[in-house]
Amino acid sequence: MVDVNREKIDLLLKHQVPFYEPGLAELVRRNAESHRLRFTTSYADAVPGAEYAIIAVSTPEGEGGEADLSYVEAAAGSIADHMTGPLVVVNKSTVPPLTGDMVSEVLRRRNSKHVAHVVSNPEFLREGSAIQDFMHPDRVVVGGHDRGAAEKVAKLYEPLMAPILITPNIYTAEMVKYASNAFLAARISFINEIARICERVDADAKLVAEGMGLDKRIGPHYLDAGIGYGGSCLVGDETVLVRRDGVVAASTLQDLYADVRAGVGAHVLAWNRESGGVGYLPLSVATMRAYEGDVLEIRTAGDRRVVCTPDHPFVTRTKMKLARELNPLDWLPVAVGQFPGCEQLSLLQVGAETAAARTSRSSGSGLNADLDRSVEFDVANTAWVRIRDVRPRPYSGAVYSLEVPGAHTFVTTGGLVTHNCFPKDVKALAALAERFDYHPELLHAVMDINRDQRMLVIDKLRETIDGLHDKVVGLLGLAFKPNTDDLREAPSLDIAKVLLAAGARVRGYDPAAMERMQPILPDLEYTKDAYELAAGADALIVITEWNEFRHLDMVRIKASMRTPVVIDGRNIYVPSEMRDIGFTYRGIGRD
Ligand SMILES: NC(=O)c1ccc[n+]([C@@H]2O[C@H](COP(=O)([O-])OP(=O)(O)OC[C@H]3O[C@@H](n4cnc5c(N)ncnc54)[C@H](O)[C@@H]3O)[C@@H](O)[C@H]2O)c1
Predict the structure, then answer these.
(1) Same domain, 275 and 133
(2) 473-513, pLDDT tens digit by residue?
(3) Are strands 565-568 and 539-542 parallel, antiparallel or unpaired?
(4) Residue 100 in contact with residue 132, Cβ under 8 Å?
(5) With bands split at pLDDT 50, 70 and 90, how would you rate the model's confidence at 420?
(6) What is the 3-state secondary structure (H, E, C) of 211-243?
C-alpha cells in the first residue's frame, strides 16, 4: 500500500490506523503481521512486478463542483514511471465518466514500453461499516475497454460470492457509482420534503417512511428525514430589491432571510426566464450558512459591487464562471431600466445608449441570448459591464443565498445579476451534465432541498427557546454519521458556527470525532460524555445518530438541564416518550 502522506504510513507501519473505522485496526494488524500487507511511501517499492495497481486516492470537490482529478492523475503518473511489465490499473476512486481515458492517456504517455489496461471498479462501501460492506457487497461493478482486463479484475472478487456486473465500456461502470449516489441523495431529499409537508398536516414522517419502506418496490433504506447538507454564498449586508404589497424597497440578505424564516413572503428582482427580462419573482427559499475564509469583492465599471464567496457562480458574457475565476477581461450582466415603484432606480439605471452599446447580441448560449431579450418593462433590459477588479478579504460569519423558482438568479442593488450557489455533493454529476449541455433539473432540486435541511434544526431551536444569545446548546454527535470520526461535510460544523455566531455557548460530544473536531472548532466546549453535555444546558440537538444516544438515561438528562429542550435532528427518540418525561421535544417531520 502506497500513500504519499508520510505520517499515515508511519502510523500504519506501527499497525495503527489513522482514522476510526470499526474492526479495521485488527484487520490491518493481522495481515501486516502475516506479511500479506506492506506499507510504503515509495512507488518504486510497490509497483515493479505488480500485476494490478489499484488507485484509491482522494477526489475532492474541485472548481465549479466537478471532481478534482489531480491526485488520480498524479497516482497514474507515478504508476507509469515505475511499472516494469504489463499491468492492469484498477480505478477505485470515485470519478466521473471519462476519467479512465485520462488515466490510460497518462499511462501511455509516461510509459511507452509496457501496456497498461485501465479498469473502472467503483467502491460502494460506507464509512462505519466499511469492512462488512467490502466483504459482503450487494454487487461488484467492473468495466473496461479491454474485456480480458475487466474479467481479470472480476475474478479477484469471486470469493466474495456477490453478483458481478461487467460492463462493456469503462464509462458505464464509472457512471454506476455517480448514478447510485445521486439516487440515494434523491431519496433523502424526497423524504425531507415529505417531512416538511408532514409537519404542516400533523403527520409523522418517520412512520410515513416506515409505511412506504414496507413496499418492496420502495424499500426502507435512505428514507430517514434529518439534517442534510448544503452551501450558499453572499454576505449578509448585500442588498436586493424586494417587492411586498406593491411597495419596492432594498433589503439586506440578512433581513430577508429572517423574514422568510418568519414566514413573510416576498418577490425579489430577478432575471425572468419566461419574459427574458428582469422582474419581481416570488422568493421560494433563503438559506444561510457559516463561512470562514476569503470573500471576494467584485467591482465593475459604473462602480457596482458584489461581495461573495470564491465559489459563487456568475454568468459572464462567454460562459459560467466562479467568482475566483473572474478577471478584468470578463463582463457581467447588469439589470437596467425603469422599475415601477422603485425608489432605487438610479442604482439600476444605465443610460439607454450605453446599455444598447453594451448589450451582447452575438452570444450563442441560450442563457446569454435570453438575457439579451427585453420584455417585461418598457425599457427593461440586461446589459453587460466590465469587471474592474476582484479583491479578496478575510471574512468570518454567515453567508446567504436566495432561490427564485426556475430563474436561479436575482439582482443585487448594484444592478448586478447574481446567481445562487451550486450546492454540494451531487454537484459533481450536475457539473458534468452541464459541461455536456444538459441541465439536470432533478439533481438541482435534490441539492437545494438538502442544502436547506441543516438549518432547519436551528430554526426549530429558535422557535422553541427565546433567543440564542448566551444560551447553552449541546450538540449530541459531531461526525457526519455514526461509527466514524469523519467530519468532511458534517452538518455539525455549520450548525455549531451559526450557533456561535448567534452568541450561543456551544458544547459538543461525540464518541469518536472529538479529537478531530477540536482543532477545527476550538470555541466549542467539549464534554466527556452526553451527561456532562446536558448538565445546565438550555437545549440539546441530536446531530449524529450514534447508538449510545438511543440508550441514554433521559430522565437523568432532563433533570440536569436548565430547560429540557431536545431538537432531534435524526428522529432517534419516540416523541410521546420524550414528552412524557417532560421534554419539549421537536423532531424532523413529526412535530
Ligand atoms: N470514504 C468512503 O466511504 C468512500 C466510499 C466509496 C468510495 N470512496 C472514494 O475513494 C477515494 C478515497 O477516499 P478516502 O475517503 O479514502 O479518501 P482520503 O482522503 O481519506 O484518503 C486518500 C489518500 O490518498 C492519498 N494520496 C493522495 N494522492 C496520492 C498519490 N498521488 N499517491 C498515493 N497516495 C495519494 C492521501 O494522502 C490520502 O491518504 C475517493 O475517490 C472517494 O470518493 C470513498
Answers:
(1) no
(2) 999 999 988 888 888 778 888 889 888 888 899 999 999 99
(3) parallel
(4) no
(5) low
(6) HHHCCCCCCCCCCCCCCCCCCCCEECCCEEEEE
Binding site membership of 125 for ligand 1 (Cβ less than 6 Å):
yes
Determine whether the shortest distance from the Cβ of 127 to ligand 1 is under 6 A: yes
pLDDT surpasses 80 at 142? yes
**Length of the chain, in residues:** 591
The three cell numbers of residue 288 are 444561510
CB-ligand 1 contact for 521 (6 Å cutoff) = no
How does strand 331-336 pair with strand 381-403?
antiparallel
Check whether residue 74 and residue 115 sit in a common domain: yes
Active site residues: 233
Is the whole-model pTM more than 0.85? no
Residue 454 sits in the same domain as residue 403: no
**What's the alpha-carbon Rg for the chain, to the nearest Å?**
26
Domain, as residue range, for 78: 42-168
Q: Which residues contact 487 (CB under 8 A, 6 or more apart)?
A: 478, 479, 480, 493, 513, 516, 517, 520
Same domain, 484 and 374: no
H or E element at residue 315:
strand 313-315
Q: How far apart are CA 241 and CA 415, in angstroms?
A: 9
Amino acid at 300: T
Residue the block writes with cell 500513500 = 3
Atom of ligand 1 nearest to the CA of 71: 28
Residue 478, C-alpha cell as written in the block = 459531531
Binding site membership of 56 for ligand 1 (Cβ less than 6 Å): yes
* Strands 305-308 and 285-300, sheet pairing: antiparallel
Q: Which of 422, 457, 481 is the last residue of a domain?
A: 422
Instruction: List Cβ neighbours of 36 (8 Å cut-off, separation of 6 or more).
Output: none
Atom index in ligand 1 nearest the CA of residue 488 equals 15
- Residue 305: CB atoms within 10 A of its CB come to 17
Q: Give the contacts of 287 (CB within 8 A, at least 6 positions apart).
A: 230, 232, 257, 400, 401, 402, 403, 451, 452, 455
Tell how many helices (H) and how many strands (E) occur in the chain: 21, 24
CATH number at residue 468: 3.40.50.720
